Amino acid sequence: MTDSTVNMDFQEQVARIERMQEETRKFTAEQHRLIAEQMKLGRDRALSGWPLVIAGMTAGAALVGATAALIKFWA
How far is residue 51's CA from residue 54's CA, in Å, rounded to a whole number? Predict the structure, then answer.
């Protein structure tokens, strides 16, 4: 093998390693994005029930208040 052939093989190996490193960086960035999205969805799912609970309590309080007002009006 001549020096130019060895140099060419070395350059090919370096280029292949750099491509693999870039693919790894892209894969890692995609993983981080997916993990962040999953955390957001989990947080949203955990908090999604509270508006319904608060609306139910408000409706219940309004019904109790209306019933008390009607009883007081008729009594």
Answer: 5
